[in-house]
């Protein structure tokens, strides 16, 4: 049996090696390493996949979130609502821009911010809601966008872990996550559903004026070289990474199906394991299973992780400390009401190996080890 990894990028690469190598060699031969043809080609292809008017690539997913906020002409006293249980970048960029993060609790089953918690956190200073589509499925986007219209707020979707997921509206129509709010943001970090071989990110919008402003911000606030209309930054997706992503985009749906198949196998064989809660699908979005995240009850999470590690099975805790307990946010964030679910999840969550190359043999070994642990 092949060594079990949280993400097996080497095996994935070997399957498309010839295409990847040819794409890389094409860029090197052209010597157009910055803003080369592959960047425009990838932007156009991803826009077509997402059915969105504008895709603006940037250097990484954190930059995408920062640039999205920069594009909205916010003021230092403005408040931005985001979930307490998430990766730090969703709130980090808020603090970086001297804005105020307002942290709200999440739903125990979906790991995403609830409409009730978001609405109760809104004040006259609120300007933006950042729903994070954590682990591969959506926050309540239909209701959140209605709420945003009611209070005249912007919505920035963090879809770094859910690129390719569909949101299913109450009328049966569908849209890709990242294309529903004002701006969508994503990361192409290597382990993501669509990952490059370095850093990369992108922003999505249907708003022509916002798209123009975002493009300027990524390029030092400039439309024309050496002429700068606004303060921006230097955040570009390089041509090599774009060429790699152009190849991998063709396989994205196949990769998602592989993850979904692996998730179904885990769930079928772990659903009756006492002491575990398997991932729950919310019914209003498809799930790309960027992570397959269990909840381990009765304080046994850390012991299970150690046991799996002793069997050469990696397992990860995303995330062991909620944002309101992070030192960086103690003086700048406002925690709204109770954050007890975020606290509980930080004690219980454990993610199993999940990637496109996971074999049934590997999953059987993992499942067997988990069952052995709970029989002790």
CATH superfamily of the largest domain: Type I PLP-dependent aspartate aminotransferase-like (Major domain)
Rg, please?
21 Å
Q: What number of domains?
A: 2
Main beta-sheet strand count, sense and barrel state: 8 strands, mixed
Spans where pLDDT lies below 50 across 5 or more residues = none
Percent range of helical residues: 25-40%
CATH topology annotation of the largest domain: Aspartate Aminotransferase, domain 2
> What class, by secondary structure content?
alpha/beta
Query: Approximately how much beta-strand content do the residues carry?
Result: 15-25%
Cα shape: globular
Question: What order do the SSEs take from the amino end to the carboxyl end, as H and E?
Answer: HHHEHEHEHEHEEEEEHEEHHEEHEHEH
The CATH architecture assignment of the largest domain turns out to be: 3-Layer(aba) Sandwich
Arithmetic mean of pLDDT? 96
Number-wise, the strands total 15
Enumerate how many helices there are, as a single number: 13
Distance between the termini: 25 Å
Name the features.
376 residues, alpha/beta, Aspartate Aminotransferase, domain 2, Aspartate Aminotransferase, domain 1, 2 domains, eight-stranded mixed beta sheet, three-stranded antiparallel beta sheet, 13 helices, 15 strands, 39% helix
Describe the structure.
- The protein is of the alpha/beta class and 376 residues long.
- The chain has two domains: 9-249, Type I PLP-dependent aspartate aminotransferase-like (Major domain) (Aspartate Aminotransferase, domain 2), CATH 3.40.640; 252-375, Aspartate Aminotransferase, domain 1 (Alpha-Beta Complex), CATH 3.90.1150.
- 39% of the residues lie in helices and 15% in strands.
- It has 13 helices and 15 strands.
- It has helices spanning 9-15, 17-30, 37-50, 61-70, 89-96, 115-121, 141-151, 208-218, 239-249, 252-270, 301-310, 340-348, 360-375; strands at 54-58, 79-83, 100-104, 126-129, 154-158, 166-168, 174-176, 183-187, 201-205, 222-224, 227-228, 276-277, 292-296, 334-335, 349-352.
- The strands form four sheets. An eight-stranded mixed β-sheet has the order 1-9-8-5-4-2-3-14, sandwiched between helices.
- Strand 2 (79-83), helix 5 and strand 3 (100-104) form a beta-alpha-beta unit.
- Helix 2 (17-30) runs antiparallel to helix 9 (239-249).
- The relative contact order is 0.18.
- The mean pLDDT is 96.
């Amino acid at each position: 049996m092949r060594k079990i990894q949280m993400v097996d990028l080497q095996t994935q690469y070997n399957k498309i090696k010839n295409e990847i190598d040819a794409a890389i060699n094409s860029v090197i031969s052209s010597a157009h390493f910055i803003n080369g043809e592959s960047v425009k080609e990838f932007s156009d292809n991803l826009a077509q996949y997402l059915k969105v008017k504008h895709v603006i690539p940037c250097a990484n997913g954190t930059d995408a979130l920062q640039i999205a906020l920069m594009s909205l002409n916010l003021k230092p006293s403005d408040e931005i609502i985001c979930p307490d249980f998430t990766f730090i970048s969703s709130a980090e960029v808020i603090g970086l821009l001297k804005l105020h993060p307002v942290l709200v609790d999440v739903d125990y089953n979906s790991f995403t911010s609830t409409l009730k918690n978001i609405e109760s956190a809104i004040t006259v200073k609120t300007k933006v809601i950042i729903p994070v589509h954590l682990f591969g499925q959506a926050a309540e986007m239909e209701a959140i966008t209605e709420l945003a219209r009611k209070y005249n707020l912007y919505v920035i979707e963090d879809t770094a872990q859910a690129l390719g997921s569909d949101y299913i509206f109450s009328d049966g129509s569908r849209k890709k996550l990242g294309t529903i709010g004002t701006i969508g943001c994503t990361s192409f970090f290597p382990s993501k559903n669509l990952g490059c071989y370095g850093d990369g990110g992108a922003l999505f919008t249907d708003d022509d004026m916002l798209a123009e402003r975002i493009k300027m911000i990524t390029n030092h606030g400039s439309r024309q070289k050496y002429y700068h209309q606004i303060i921006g930054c230097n955040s570009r997706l390089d041509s090599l990474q774009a060429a790699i992503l152009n190849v991998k985009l063709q396989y994205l749906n196949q990769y998602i199906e592989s993850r979904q198949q692996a998730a179904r196998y885990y769930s079928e064989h772990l659903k009756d394991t006492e002491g575990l809660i398997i991932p729950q699908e919310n019914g209003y979005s498809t799930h790309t299973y960027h992570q397959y995240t269990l909840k381990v009850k009765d304080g046994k999470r850390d012991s299970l992780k150690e046991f799996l590690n002793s069997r050469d099975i990696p397992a990860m805790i995303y995330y062991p400390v909620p944002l309101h307990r992070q030192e960086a946010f103690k003086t700048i964030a406002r925690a709204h009401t109770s954050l007890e679910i975020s606290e509980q999840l930080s004690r219980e969550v454990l993610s199993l190996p999940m990637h496109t190359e996971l074999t049934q043999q590997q999953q059987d070994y993992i499942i067997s080890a988990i069952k052995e642990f709970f029989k002790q």
